[in-house]
Amino acid sequence: MKNLISMRDLSKEEILYLLKLASQIEKGEVNPDMQRRLAALLFFEPSTRTMFSFDTAMKRMNGNTIVMSGTKDTSAKKGESFADTLQTIAQYTDIIIMRSPIEGAARYASEVVGIPVVNAGDGANQHPTQALLDLYSIQKTQGTLENLKIGIAGDLRFGRTVHSLVQAMSLFGAKFKFFSPTFLSIPKNIKEFLHEKKIRFNEFDEDMDIKILSELDILYVTRIQKERFASPEDYEKVKGSYCLTKEMLSHVKPNLKVLHPLPRVDELSSDVDDTKYAYYFQQAQNGVYMRQAIITILLGGV
Amino acid sequence: MGKKAINPIKNGTVIDHIPAGKGKNVWEMLNLPSSEEKMFLGKNLSSEKLGKKDMLMFENLELSLKQLNVIALIAFGATISIIKDGEITRKDQVILPELVEKVITCPNPKCITNEEDVATKFEVLENGDVEVKCHYCEKKYLIGEVKIKM
Ligand SMILES: [Zn+2]
User: Fold this and answer.
1) Predicted structure pTM score
2) pLDDT tens profile B130-148
3) Distance CA B18, CA B12 (A)
4) What is the ipTM of this complex?
5) Distance of CA A10 to the CA centre of its chain
6) Across the interface, do B136 and A104 touch by the CB < 8 Å criterion?
């Protein structure tokens, strides 16, 4: 592995290896040392959570970071080309971790510079480290990734996290239940992909049914963004009907875990937090171990 | 090669079995420099295989690989015959390239290729229709949805 740009580039073996390494790092069985290693965190679009997660991952391994955040205070203003900016930064650092609203920006960066590039999100396209930390959370809580029943609720149309998760989990024979308002339903190309892979799924355009929830091993809730709606009234209508509450979890399997990429809005009630099913804060913590594993592999730390 | 069709050109290239209606399209796409040479466009000719087809003939013209790739994209199934001294010396079906560089513009306004000076690169997929997938933004499009320029 030279870069981490897209989940599509990863084989099942590579994914399993990353998961194993993340677990070894978490347990202290492997202690990568990134002393004198410097990571450039280039966030051309703000995302404090993702940036902190990478920053923490690097510093937990004694590494260092330099940070560039936002677009306006960078060389873009001086008319320097993106390629030149990247090449300059690559002279100072060992790895580039990049988030951009431009789709394909990280792929292009990896072709321009001679050091590893990690895609920390490129517009609506890919966010592979999120997908990997989701897989890690699923594996850690279920003991396996094979043959799980996974419910996914919320914005299934625009949510790149959802698309990556579906693609990745389909490598492990998952079955899916999709819950979303009709106009935010899972896109045609993802459905075609699932048909091709002979993966079974059902779609529901109403609120999560207690009976269906009782079959699940994982319930992945994503936020429904107000900006996606044509009018505030449409949003208000949907908002109330897509909210997971403690009450709805009364008949679920004991191993069920509720995941959410955070931040949440109204789709996940805070009364779920003190149930044994809530896992979203640990999920965020798992992100640090997974990002440590990714940086370690790319910088040859093991 | 068996059948001796009416052959109005002596040396050059015949692009046959173009899906009906696409002939003019292919010709425009090739973006050939203006020339004094003979050129024919046949429209809605009868074809056993296609029912109706278009056909193009160019005197003294040899197509580049890049041009052949573009023909394969927009007129998949077309055949290319090389004519020498009035005889067909070679006849091949166009082959879809696996990768097309530079000629397709990505329709995604948020794609890096529309933001920076980056040459486009598309993976070509064939499942009934010809589809192309952007190497950068990973979006898939039907060939009819993208702009092609030579
Ligand atoms: Zn693109």
Assistant:
1) 0.89
2) 999 999 999 999 999 999 9
3) 17
4) 0.89
5) 15
6) yes
